[in-house]
Amino acid sequence: MKSEIADAIRLKHCPVALFWSKEKPHGAMQFQEGKWGCVMWLAIHAAKGKTAVADAKTFGCVGGGVGLGFGNQYKNFPGGEEGFCYFLSRGNEKRDGGSELAQKIKPFLRDEAYGNFLHGERYIKYPELVSKFIKNLPITEIPQLYVVFKPLSAIDLKKEKPQSIILFVNPDQLSALVVLANYGRESNENVIIPYAAGCQTIGIYPYREAQTSKPRAVVGLTDISARVYTRKQLGDANYMTFTVPLALFKEMEKNVADSFLQRHTWQSLLNKR
To answer: Model's pTM, two decimal places?
Structure first.
């Protein structure tokens, strides 16, 4: 599938189609079972022209399992969901049994992960607020075995139905896409930026939007940890994600011609890069 949007905004990396499948694509990159990894690496792998895949045993981390639609994996975090609530906030060091648990799992953790388990990532103020954060997430269980990331150019819409299209964009391109997402709509709030992990803003949030009559685009990579993990792979610190449910993506594709993308203001931004 060719993208008019990618050409119009001079996208550096391939648009990525995310879809569910009952079969694993041959030769797809996949994390090893039980090994840590960032789901965003799978998306970047596809943005560089190759296919990647995850299933319920190879999603890299519990947040990634949640983000891709494999249910509430926070229950499987060391110390359960409560342990995660402390991990994302104050840390487990002063939680009953937290220090002892930290010592037991230390041999299996990276130094960074061990420090965060003890002292917290501090992304949410209190554990109680993390619990509310989890309840507010659109946690889902996908009806297929695999989540596949594939270059959009390699997608055959007769055989594969993307849930969404993921674009890695710089600030100028992000601005253009926000305008384009609203271009043919009667409302002006057709793009959202939820507070969530990087994988959740390309996974479960777009999944939820895809079920609505007027799906919205989702801006992501506001996850500070994910930004650290993806900087090397992307080769630039200025990328965000812009994830579009398929119906909205098709709408936006049709609106490229004769839009602001053909006019001098946008062209002047392109020519300055």
So the answer is: 0.95
